[in-house]
Write a structure and sequence with these properties.
There is one protein chain. The protein has one domain: Roll (2,3-Dihydroxybiphenyl 1,2-Dioxygenase, domain 1). Helices cover 15% and strands 34% of the residues. It is built from 2 helices and 8 strands; from the N terminus they run βαββββαβββ. The strands form 2 sheets. A 4-stranded mixed sheet has the order 1-4-3-2, with helices on one face. The radius of gyration is 14 Å and the shape is globular. The model has no long low-confidence stretch (mean pLDDT 95).
Amino acid sequence: MPHAISWFEIPTTDFARARTFYEAMLGTTLMPMEAPGRKMAAFPADWSKGEISGCIVQGQGAQPAATGTLIFLNCDPDLAAALGRVVKAGGKIVLPKTEIPMQGAGHMAIITDTEGNSIGLHSAK
């Protein structure tokens, strides 16, 4: 098993608002996905290189939550850029950029997105 994670889904109640938030915060475009009865848009990844991705999703069973599993989005090379766009995009900063106390582990931050989900950000710098 090369990776512990193979896919993730971030639940939304307002799909358009969530998509706008993540695209603005990360400075990227989410890719629309087809799924019966669900709205989905995926974070960019090159699957041929083994990159891992996930999506935002609205539909039955997709309930945003501030507690539970915490995923960390890759914000390399420095999460400061994405963190600097969180509030303007409608989110909140819960934990500012913080060095992870293990040599070479990088930095992390925790935010709350527009849907009320707690989301981690990670970068090498």
